[in-house]
Amino acid sequence: MKNHIFCFIALLVLPSLYGQLEITFNYDMIEGIQTLRAEDTITDIRFEQLVSSQGTQGFLKKMKSYRPSANEKAFKESLGHLLTESDAPDLFFYSRVKPKFQIGAEFVTNLKTEESKIKRALIESLGDFLPASNQRHITLYFVFGAIGGGWTMDGEPNSFYIDVSSFEKNDAVGLQLLCKHEVLHLIQDQTRPKLSKNEPAAYYIEQAFREGMATYVADFTKVENASGYALFNQKIYNKNQRRKETNYRLFELLVIDLFEQRCDYDFVDDLSLSGMYDSPAYFVFYDMMRTMESKLGTSQVVKLLELSAIDFIRSYEQLEETDYQFSEKFSQVLAKLKH
Q1: Looking at the DSSP assignment, which residues form a beta bridge with residue 141?
Q2: Is the pTM of this model over 0.90?
Q3: Are 152 and 185 in contact (CB under 8 A)?
Q4: Coil, strand or helix: which one is 9?
Q5: How far apart are CA 324 and CA 245, in angstroms?
Q6: Which regions of the chain are under pLDDT 70?
Q7: pLDDT for 230-263, tens place per residue?
């Protein structure tokens, strides 16, 4: 595998708005898989080069969080499905997403011509959220798998990952919004309160608030004539809009049950924060933010995003004529939580 990283580093210094942010795009995993496919074999040397890249390591770590047996041996077995027909186990589902690899590779090729523009727009759009005089160097690792979307990793404050299997070959808008969502999470990790799972109800509310904030700030519903990843996300937004009241009720129930120790955090996370059921908790806070925007204006909502998650909910409760009113039981639980 050619040992190089194609990257364009954009350093914009606008201290009056947001300090300095440097972004690097890393394509090592994509290029490594392209080399395997071109050579039509997986030699030990090429495989070691591929798994030694940070992008691949982050991808393997993420897969392992879903399936503990997703190790390097299983990865190598699954890679065979990208090259030819194979009877080997396919723990990484590469036989399913094989048709998407060429599209993903074309997406990366097209992305290289848009890199500077995407980075500049991304940095400018996050101006309200980047702490003044804060200097960050963030690396975006492009990977290929069956996970889809993007993610950050615990212990990696300056990197995130994007699975190109989610994208069409011309999908710069979808990428920009996904990057905005994930970079905001990295900023939140430095600026938001650090709560503990030992207080699961408060921790859950904070996680849902962070996701709702990222969903609101990187709002796919505002994309006109959407296609590709943006259209995929608009369908999720629309589904959650249709079940809005149910989402609120579920969120209340889960907070109360966590507080009263009737369920554990991992169950709640799987049910309402993972993509398994289209992340309903994201859209509870997203809806509160959109409601507050309609009544108070965007600039006021941005200020309210600096509050604790619990104080934000209380600000919502003080509004008049909202579509949803939280129950008295829920409000009583909020009053007892630390934040």
Answers
A1: 26, 161
A2: no
A3: yes
A4: coil
A5: 7
A6: 1-20, 132-134, 339
A7: 999 999 999 999 999 999 999 999 999 999 999 9
